[in-house]
Each structure stands twice: as C-alpha cells, then as structure tokens.
Amino acid sequence: MDWLGRSCRRSDDERLADCGWRLAAGGRMSVIVELPQPLRALAGGKSRVEAEGSSVAALLDDLDRRYPGLKSRVADETGRIRRHINLFINGVSARRQGAETAPLAAGDTVIILPAVSGG
C-alpha cells in the first residue's frame, strides 16, 4: 500500500502509475520530488519533478544536473542539508533516516520544505 492506502503491486504497470511510480529512461524507476514555491523557478515552474538517486545526496546531485542551482539552495558547500531546509521521505524526516545518506528507493516521494518562522 502507498501512504494514501491505495494498493500498489509492482508487477502491474497500471497500478504502479496509479501509486505514483514512474519508469525512468533505461527502465530504472525514479523518485518523485515535490518542490516548494521558492525552488520552482529553477525547475521551470514545476511543483513536482522526477529524479534518480539511491540516497538523498545522489538525488540532490541528479536534481542539480537537471535543474542547475537547485542543490545549492538545499545543501551547503559540503553537501549537508541546510539547517533551514526540511526533507521528508515518504512523510518521514530525512534527518531521522541519516540526512544526506538516507537511502531512497524507486517510487519514493521526497518533499523539500523550507522552515517557517515568525510570530
């Protein structure tokens, strides 16, 4: 089941599509990335993009290859996720899963969310 409770069977391509799974070039499956408003201009205005990577760090590298400048907004020069940026992998904080080394699997959804503060 996906996080919305829909039945997802990997052997059935139609159900994969229903559950948000997409095949990338070469038959590899991609990760869906949801972008906040401030980053959408770097992705041509898209709120949702697809990229590849077996970890958060590899995903950010692929996103930067596809959308130059995106990685530097999310990670610092050492590759660490910036303190004011929150990443969620399938609804769970990436920081609880190893931050940059957090593993990703085909069909995962990563949400990039800047921190909100104020009074």
| Total strand segments | 5
Task: Outline the low-pLDDT stretches.
Answer: 1-18
How much of the sequence lies in strands comes to: 15-25%
Biggest β-sheet, characterized?
Answer: 5 strands, mixed
Structural class, please?
Answer: alpha+beta
N-C termini distance? 39 Å
Order of helices and strands: HEHEHHEEE
Task: Please describe what this structure looks like.
- The protein has a single domain (29-113), classed as Ubiquitin-like (UB roll), CATH 3.10.20.
- Strand 3 (85-89) and strand 4 (92-93) form a beta hairpin.
- With 119 residues, the chain is α+β, with helices and mostly antiparallel strands.
- Residues 1-18 have low confidence and may be disordered.
- It contains four helices and five strands.
- A five-stranded mixed sheet has the order 2-1-5-3-4, with helices on one face.
Write the layout of secondary structure elements.
Blueprint: H1 13-18, E1 31-34, H2 37-40, E2 48-51, H3 56-66, H4 70-74, E3 85-89, E4 92-93, E5 109-114
Parallel strand pairs: 1-5
Antiparallel strand pairs: 1-2, 3-4, 3-5
Could you name the key traits of this structure?
119 residues, alpha+beta, Ubiquitin-like (UB roll), five-stranded mixed sheet, globular, disordered N terminus
Summarize this entry quickly.
The protein has 119 residues and is an alpha+beta fold. It is built from four helices and five strands.
